[in-house]
Amino acid sequence: MTTVIQPDPAPVEAPASPWHAGERLLQEHVGVAARMAQIGPKVLRDYMPDQHRDFYAQLPLLLAGAVDPAGDPWAGALEGEPGFAWSPDPRVLRVAAMPDADDPLAAGLGPGKALGLLGIELQTRRRNRVNGLVSAWDGKRFEVTVGQSFGNCPQYIQTREWHFSRAPGLRFAGGARESAGLDAAAAALIRRSDTFFVASYADTPEGGRQVDISHRGGRPGFVRVDGDVLTIPDFSGNRYFNTLGNLAANPRAGLLFIDFERGDTLQLSGPTELVLEGPEVASFEGAERLWRVRALRAVRRPGALALRWRFGDYAPTSLATGQWPAAL
After folding, report:
1. Which domains does the chain have, with CATH numbers?
2. Within a 10 A sphere around the Cβ of 181, how many other Cβ atoms?
3. Which site from 122, 138, 159, 314 is most exposed, i.e. has the minimal number of CB atoms within 10 Å?
4. How far, CA to CA in Å, does 102 sit from each of 75, 137, 138, 167, 305?
5. pLDDT in tens, 180-202
6. Count of CB atoms within 10 A of residue 303's CB?
7. 255, 283, 252: which is closest to 182 by C-alpha?
């Protein structure tokens, strides 16, 4: 009888982790690192599924995160008639819109720049994200090649119905008002807001610069304002820790608040601090951790957006529902 000895099968390499060191640090802190190492390669793609491609094409608004030459991240809004963003193939998203010249987001846009994009449909509470590099640019439109594409759950999104108050390409002549820190009008907008968007980034040895923009939502007043410092509760989310992981690696953030009735925007940029545990966390109902931003620069742009919004039907009023606090 002949014994045939088969060679050992070649070892199967585990897929490379899509999480950078800052994200893994937060995942380890809450005890989900092993689980997220398995989930990550399944949910973070380098292409857009067809349903995401169709989704972007029906939006009147994209949120964008970019980094200016000084290394400060900024969050901003791009708007247009539905169809202004579209995907000619699964690895490319084209956007036929540009920020105004007085929008601080503009300083971080350009050929080869890292960019984060968030598509959010407030009336249905759907949201998807694309992070990548600007691969084509002509000053009127640009193209992003996908580095990471992923979806988010609908938690914590206040529904709103939209309309245009003017043609989205018609710029408003109000002009930007920049200040060091927060003035009374800026603080008042933050205190009555139930939604804001945050841009952050990390420079990684594996993937270079990764820029992200994320949604935050809560009851009006969920962001505490103390002078120029904002304290923001962070509640149970998907455990990706895209934003807080970036802040652990690079403690800078850019925030965007929108007055949905008037089209005004408030953009902030400054250093951050994470508060992962302690009595202060417990003082925010339901919070698992906190983070702070010191607004070193603030830019108010009255009437900057042509879009106007009114409340929809979904407006949770209790933290006990588990649906309302800020996430991710």
Report:
1. 21-321 (2.30.110.10)
2. 16
3. 138
4. 13, 19, 19, 19, 13
5. 999 999 999 999 999 999 999 99
6. 17
7. 255
